[in-house]
Amino acid sequence: MRHTGQSYAPVISVRDLHYQYEDGTVALAGVDFELHPGETVALFGANGSGKTTFVLHLNGLLEGSGSVEVCGLPVKKENLKRVRQKIGMVFQDPDDQLFMPSILEDVAFGALNLGLSAEEASERARIALEKVGMLESHDKAPYHLSAGQKKRVAIAGVLVMAPEILVLDEPTTFLDPPGQRALTTLLRELPQSKLIVTHDVEFARSLATRAVFFQKGRIAGEGAADRIIEQFQWDQKLCKGQYL
């Protein structure tokens, strides 16, 4: 759906996006969406409603019919390297992103892939770790960290690429309440536009400037988070991530 009332160009623009899996399952059935600079948008919807399929189109991991642009770049094979520098994906389980012997090496890995020297990559990694409050632990092995610390390091590993957009998939999973509060504070301080796939109502309320609700591969509603939660009776405690 179009986000009206904005005079500046969107950082994500999706038009009439369709996608069908090989088994015939229709995952997306004509999605229109825009994300504007500085926005934080929550994506709500039941499991299987199309949210994850949608975000995987944003960096070219999936390709359907329709148009997808990130920072003005069509998400096509020839643009994927540049697109993936613009949009940083933080997965639900940080262990999917952490694999090097030390935190510093893990975060520096992305910068090395940009072609930076080892010294430049290390410096960028230190800056990113400082932003997420993990610089003092730079020499620790990732498996020694708490769930909240791992999440912070995973975010640092994305920030080192200097993206304009952050996409976070269920970021509060595995976090206790103090970890969730710390993550909320961190994300508020980061200037990037953010797209957050979540079932966590309170987390979305605390961060999102807008929310959209996916249902059967379409965006069934969008607006202020409180209004969307009320409209779709969206409460993960009652429905455990299912549409009531």
Structural features, described:
- The chain is an alpha/beta fold and 244 residues long.
- It is built from 9 helices and 10 strands.
- A 6-stranded mixed sheet has the order 6-7-8-3-9-10, sandwiched between helices.
- Strand 7, helix 6 and strand 8 form a beta-alpha-beta unit.
- Helix 4 crosses helix 5 and helix 5 packs parallel to helix 6.
- The longest helix has 14 residues.
- The chain is globular.
What descriptors fit this protein?
single chain, 244 residues, alpha/beta, 6-stranded mixed β-sheet, 4-stranded antiparallel β-sheet, 10 strands, globular, disordered N terminus
Write the layout of secondary structure elements.
Elements: E1 12-20, E2 26-35, E3 40-45, H1 51-58, E4 65-70, E5 73-74, H2 80-86, E6 87-90, H3 103-113, H4 118-131, H5 147-159, E7 165-169, H6 177-189, E8 193-197, H7 201-207, E9 210-215, E10 218-223, H8 225-231, H9 236-239
Parallel strand pairs: 3-8, 3-9, 6-7, 7-8
Antiparallel strand pairs: 1-2, 1-4, 4-5, 9-10
General form: globular
Strand pairing plus helix content: what structural class? alpha/beta
What percent of the residues sit in helical stretches (DSSP H or I)? 25-40%
Tell me the number of strands: 10
How do the strands line up in the largest sheet?
6-7-8-3-9-10
Assembly state (oligomeric): single chain
Please give the count of helices.
Answer: 9
| Average pLDDT figure | 87
Uncertain regions: pLDDT < 50 for 5+ in a row?
Answer: 1-6, 236-244
Please give the radius of gyration in angstroms. 18 Å
Largest sheet: 6 strands, mixed
Order of helices and strands: EEEHEEHEHHHEHEHEEHH
What percent strand? 15-25%
- Kindly, what is the distance between the CA atoms of the first and last residues, rounded to a whole number of angstroms? 23 Å
